[in-house]
Structures are given as structure tokens and as C-alpha cells.
Amino acid sequence: MARLRFGPDDEAEFFATRDRLLEEYGGWLRESRGAAVPGDGRDLAADATVLLDWRWGYSTGELDRFEPADMHEFLVEWCPRKVSAPPEFIGDIAAAAKGFVEFMAATGRLEGGASSAARSMVAIDELIPDAMQAMADPSNFGMAKSLFGGSFPDPDELGSEAELQAYLERRMEEFNALPFEERKALTDPSFDPTPTLRELPFVHVPPSPEAVETSAAETPVLELFERLRTHLGERGAPLTTKGNLKLDDARALVGLLGTDDFVDPEFGDRTFRTSSSEELEELTFLVDWAKDAGAVRVVKGRMLPVKAWAGRSTLDNAERCFEQLVEPGPLFRRFRFSSFLDDLNDLLDSGVLHWLTMLLAPGAEFPFDAFVEIATDEAHHQLDDIIPPLLRDHLEGTIVRQVSAAFDALVTAGVVEWPDRRDERPEVGPSLWIGGTLHLTPLGRHLVPRHVERIGFTLRSVDDPATASAVELVEILATSALDPSDIAPRWRADVPDADRVAEVVDAIVAAQSAHHRLTAIRLLRCLDRDEVAAPYVRQLLDSPVAGHAAMYLLEQGLADPEEVGSFLDEAPLIDLLSTLVDEPELLSDMFLRAVEATGDGEALLTQMWRHAMPETLEVLEALGHHLPDKRLAKTARKSVMQHRSHMANLDR
After folding, report:
1. What mean pLDDT is predicted for residues 50-65?
2. Are 290 and 343 in a shared domain?
3. Residue 265: inside a domain, yes or no?
4. How many whole angstroms separate alpha carbon 135 and alpha carbon 131?
5. pLDDT at position 144 over 60
6. Are 108 and 167 part of one and the same domain?
């Protein structure tokens, strides 16, 4: 059987095999499907060219092996970035790909045979909606696809390479003649004059003005700029003809600002003389940042402190520093002359505001390694086709260093804290900070919300939780470390108790998750208005949260068991257990306590699987995986199937 696996050096052999396979594929279509195939199979065979060229040029080079994951990569990831065609073309490509894998299986060429082909064909059908959506999303367009607007000519219409070159040059001239805003709209996927904004899934509680002022006063970069300004003095420092600091000033500032630059580094018995302050990357980074932020300026060949800087507030200066860091991107500012890493730095800089927004959620902190993992996945997705081979061989290590540098700059700007990072200091070069977790400072929580719209989000913000609506307050409490007992006494204090209670009861019913539901019930308890709450809670006995209502009435002494006992169910237990699914030991312990109280674990699981609440399935699945009692774990797994069957019958 002819060879069906190719590498990058097998170009001639691949194309010969490709053309032979496509010709056979067209013939097979005509014989097996006849008139049901448009164009006698020629169109489907031609469209399959896209699949085969992708497999060789961008994938594994294996033409005898296709898995569902391959089809996802081809249809949902690669085609939207590389194929210049309307979204509807996905249907043609998908049909061609399905037919090709069926053909390869039918002719004994596909690894795994008919069963493998069936898996891929089913996957292709399921992927078509996502692929069409991705094809229509401008953020997925590569540069060429953006420039030409999805309208490349038919190759048959261009008789020669010279005609193709002339066509491309003509389109480039047309593009360059467009106004700047139109060019930017074509080439910059983030440019959208009327973006659709998505609301972030939490309520932002800004830090107090006092906390922000204190945080701004502790911003490291302001102290560094003050040392620079003091060194310059009123007369300033003379610059070289190229506009750089002279070496004497540079040497003094390296020590004064504590940069990691090496002046006249020594290797063995050799000393390499520093010939220009421009070679001192960390110092250059800080000095350029100070100039752009307005702390210093250059006048007639001298660097001088800006007098207005001292007259502005500390918070204003801290804001200027952050703006001048995040606008160009911390890596662009820090490594603007390192063209070798331009593509990677641009990609990582575009992620900085997204990372800061992740940290904006109440109480949020993320491990450094999580950001590295995100950056690495995105780099492979976006850059694998274009990064230089030398960088590709060291990509993971380079990403760690660049992400570290970006966050180190944000720490210097005072918007991020990284208290438990580790210093992996190499023999040569700046420190490499790794490990630990990151969170926003009060200054960061004050400044980052101003930028979320730039990355496509809106943010609900409540200055004082005590003035929020009940739904907003539950969201705040559910996503932060605030204690309901601290907020409840002053929450909406000017509103009558009955109205406050009614609003919280409505929030219990409206809760979108078990955690929010339990938080709302705790808030109701903390209001300490039980007699007022009783009639409102009784109304819940005829609702999906009847079990919670009955338990509340009993616990607060507002009803007796004979009156509400029939409403008690396993809903409160399921809600509580659902908050522990990520902590298997606590989950198992809590469930076994409930078993101990009821005396029959199997009966308890039977009652649980009958509940239609969304949390039931994940709780039963978690119990089936983690219960130490094997008999109960097996019963829990059986309950999963019974619950699914029960829910299917409810939907009929």
C-alpha cells in the first residue's frame, strides 16, 4: 500500500499522493453515490483538498488517521483563521471531509476502519454550528483573511504566478489607500466601533477612598520616580547626542533604583564594557516610563524633573503610571527593542487586561502557574504557525519569563500584589519571579474597572453593599469574604422591615445556584426579623424551595413539625452538598452525617435522585466517585442513572 504519512521534507511525494487520492475519491463518490453527488463528485473531491493540505502543512501529515479531535482543530480552529470564505462554506468542507474519511475506510486505508470513520463523521456533524460561528467571528481572522475580506480569487481565473502576484499587489494598494480607521477595522480584530459588551458575572464593590489613597502612596514606581527626580535635581542631567543618559548617571541610577542591570559585566577573566546606557534594559524601561508618565522630560539635551508632577496628587500620579504601562502593554514597554519576541509579547500584552479582570472578582486570587498555563495554550493556538524555530524550541520557558516580567511590572505599578513569589535568579540577567499567587491591590481594584470595556465587558458596581438590592447583595456576599451578619443590620436601614424581608425572600427564589440560595437564606436569618419574615416564608411552601422554607420556619420556632413536616425534603441537603463537590472528603463526611441521622443511606439516596433541582446530578456523581463506603458509592452511581431517567420522563 502506498505511503500515507508525510513530513515537512516530503513535499513532492505528498502532493503526488494527494492528487492521486483525490482522483480516486472522486471516482469512488460517482460509483457509490451516483446522481446524489453534485458535479459527479468533482466538487466534494476538490473541497477535500483543504483537509489534506491542512493535514500536511499544519497538522501531523497523517492521511490514514483522523480522530474527532482532529476534526475540531480543522473545522473550528484552523478554517476560521485561514480559509477566506463565507461561513456557509463550512458545510461544503464538512461534507467533503465526511466523504473522504468514509472513502479511506471503504478502501482499507483508514486506521481503525469503519468505526473510526463513523466517530469522525458524527463529530463533523456536531461541529458544523460551532465552525460556522467561528468562521463569522472577525476575532478569528488572520491578517491575510482580514485584508482581503474573505474574497480571494478563483485560482483557475489566474493563469500564472505573475498574475497572482499582480492581483495581490493591486489589493494591497487598494488597502493602503483606505482611511486609517478602515484599515484598522480590517486588520485589528479588537477594533469594533460598536462592540457587543458582556456583563461580568459578579458585582464589583470598589475599595474605600481611604484604602485607595493608602495603596497609591505605597506604589513602588512612585518611589522609584522620586529617586530619579532627586538624582536629576533642578539642573537635570545631560544626555548623549542619541538622547541617552550618560554612563556616569546610568551607573549611579542602576544602584539608586535597584535595577538588575549589569554594568561592565565580567565573565571569567574578561570584562565587557558597557558602551551606552541603552544597553541597560531595566534602567531604560524605568526612565522611558517616567518620561511618558510625565515625571521627567527632555529639554535641550538635558533630562529634567517635571515641576507639575510634584503638584499633582499621589493618586493622580499613580493613575498616570498605570495608564502608561497598560496602554502600550508592559512587555512592549519593557522589551520594545527585542523584535525577536514581538509576536509573543504582543499576544501576552493583549491578555494583561483579561488577567487583571479575572483578579477583579471579589476575593479573587490566582496562582502564577495558572496564568502561565493560559498564556502557553494561547501561544500555541495563535503562534505555532509563525514563531521562529529557535523560539519554538524554548517557548514554554520563554513564556514563563515574559509572564513573570509582565506581572513584575504590574507589581511595580502598584496594582498587583504577589507576596509569595520566589526569586529564581540566573547568573546573568534580571530576576525571574515565579510561583505564588497574585491579587489586586486597592489601587488595582480602583483602576482596572475603567478598562474592562476595552476587552468587551461591562461591570455592575455597587459603592456600598448596604445600599444594594437584595439580589446584588446576595451576589456580593456569595462571591466575597464579607460576612452577612456585618452587612444585614445596616442594609437598606431606611426601608421598612417588611419590604426588606420580602426582597430577600424574592432573592431566595431567584437564586441562580445553591451557593447563592444558601447565602440568601443566611442573609434572611441575619436580618433577625423572624416574626416579620414568617408570612413571606410560608408563601415559599408552595415553591421549589419548600424544603428550605419549612426548615427555616422550624429552626426559627415559627412553625411546628405537624404543620410543615410534610414539606421537608432533601433539597437543603443537596444544596449544601453541592457547595462541597470540589472537596471530596468534606462532601463524604457531610453526607455520612446525614446518613447517620436518618439511619438509612440507600433510602436517603433514593429520595435525593427524585429531586429535579440542577445540583442533584453533580452531587450524586460526586458521591459515586468519592464515598468511602463502597456499597453506598455503588448505590450513588445507580442513583445517577435513575435521576437521569427520572428527568427524561419529566420532560416528556
Report:
1. 86
2. no
3. yes
4. 6
5. no
6. no
- Helices 220-232 and 395-412 sit at what angle, rounded to 10 degrees? 70
Residues 431 and 401 occupy one common structural domain: yes
Closest-CA residue to 558 (of 536, 543, 573): 536
The rounded Cα 588 to chain-centroid distance in angstroms is 32
The CA radius of gyration of the chain, in Å to the nearest whole number, is: 32
The reply to whether 163 and 136 lie within a common domain is: no
| Eight-state DSSP code of residue 459 | E
Does the pLDDT at position 106 exceed 50?
A: yes
pLDDT at position 518 over 50: yes
Domain C-terminal end among 268, 292, 317: 317
Residues in the chain: 652
Looking at the structure, tell me whether residues 423 and 397 fall in a common domain. Answer: yes
Which three cell numbers, joined as nine digits, stand for 35?
446522481
State how beta strands 266-267 and 270-271 pair: antiparallel
Clarify whether residues 434 and 406 are in a common domain: yes
Chain segment 616-635, per-residue pLDDT in tens: 999 999 999 999 999 999 99
The total number of structural domains in the chain stands at: 6
Say which range, 27-36, 143-152, 255-264, 373-382, has the weakest mean pLDDT.
143-152
pTM above 0.85, yes or no: no
Tell me whether residue 203 is in a domain: no
* CA–CA separation, 102 and 363 (whole Å): 52
Give the range of the structural domain holding residue 496, as residue numbers without chain letter.
Answer: 462-567
On whether the CB atoms of residues 397 and 199 are closer than 8 A, the answer is no
Same-domain status, 280 and 182: no
* Cell triple for 197: 459588551
In a domain, 488, yes or no: yes
Residue 193 domain-assigned?
Answer: no
Task: Work out whether strand 457-461 and strand 266-267 pair parallel, antiparallel, or are unpaired.
Answer: unpaired
Query: Taking a C-beta distance cutoff of 8 angstroms, is the pair 601, 639 a contact?
Result: no
CA distance 74 to 51: 7
Cα angle 601, 607, 613; round to 5: 125
- Examine the pLDDT at 482 and tell me if it is beyond 80: no
